[in-house]
Amino acid sequence: MLTSTLSRRAAFAALTVPAATALTSTARAAPLPDGALRDVCFLTPQSIEGPYYLDPKLVRAQIAEGRTGVPLRVDLRVIDGATCAPSIGARVDLWHADAQGIYSGYEGQGDKQDLSTVGQKFLRGTQFTDGKGAASFQTIYPGWYAGRAVHIHFTVRTNPAGSSAHEFTSQIYFDDAMNQKVLAQAPYNAKGPLTTKNEQDGIFKENGKDLILAVQPAEGGYKGTFDIALQTT
């Protein structure tokens, strides 16, 4: 069952959402230390929203809701693509599949057409960026489903309470070797080997190399910081 971007945006009818600007350079700068600003920013590429968005109306950093998997902390930093200054008070929505490739809130997913997670809200949440443009989520490493590489979805709305908000949607990926390392562990390995690596994913091929989250060991799992540079004017 698909939820179109158009119907989903009807829930935000008060927002005026101009089209976001696509990537202007194939280069992607590595994250900077907390609080540091760049002299030059590379705009983050857009990607499709996908069929499994819903707004759980939950402002929270802890989004696993008991779903088991390798712990993952995702630190997103939203910055102005023109000035590299932090974007303060932006709304950030993040959502992804569980260790078995299942999303909350939907029925009939992929090869599990008899499965329903309607009414559930696991692995979804909203945060608002702080004075450094940062929004953090405590979650688990996502699983996979047929036809897609391992990924996380996010949407950013700058000035979300204003009359001229800007909306930007994209996806985050992981290094193939990291995916193989994590997916070999329980509970991920119950699903079997990953069938779609990054370069085999048609959506990744568009701009995925600029959307890879570099992670490092932390807190019994992993953590990573991803800068989202937007052109909002």
Question: Can you describe what's shown?
Answer:
- The relative contact order is 0.24.
- This protein has one domain (5-12, 19-25, 33-230): Aromatic compound dioxygenase (Protocatechuate 3,4-Dioxygenase, subunit A, Sandwich), CATH 2.60.130.10.
- The chain has helices spanning 5-9, 176-183, 202-207, and strands at 71-80, 91-95, 107-109, 112-116, 124-128, 134-140, 151-158, 166-173, 215-218, 221-230.
- The longest helix is centred in the last third of the chain and has 8 residues, at 176-183.
- It is built from 3 helices and 10 strands.
- It has 233 residues and is mainly beta.
- A hairpin with a 2-residue loop joins β9 and β10.
- It starts with a helix and ends with a strand.
- The model is unreliable at 1-32 (pLDDT under 50).
- Helices cover 8% and strands 28% of the residues.
- The strands form 3 sheets. The protein has a 4-stranded mixed beta sheet with strand order 6-1-10-9, with no helix packed on it. The chain has a 4-stranded antiparallel beta sheet with strand order 5-2-7-8, with no helix packed on it.
Query: How much is the average pLDDT?
Result: 84
Strand proportion, as a percent range, falls in 25-35%
Structural class: mainly beta
CATH topology: Protocatechuate 3,4-Dioxygenase, subunit A
Q: What do we call the CATH homologous superfamily?
A: Aromatic compound dioxygenase
User: What's the CATH class label?
Assistant: Mainly Beta
Through-space gap between termini: 34 Å
Q: Tell me how many strands there are.
A: 10
Spatial strand arrangement across the major sheet? 6-1-10-9
Q: Radius of gyration from the CA trace?
A: 17 Å
Q: How many structural domains can be distinguished in the coordinates?
A: 1
Q: Count of helices?
A: 3
Element-level helix/strand string: HEEEEEEEEHHEE
Quaternary status of these chains? single chain
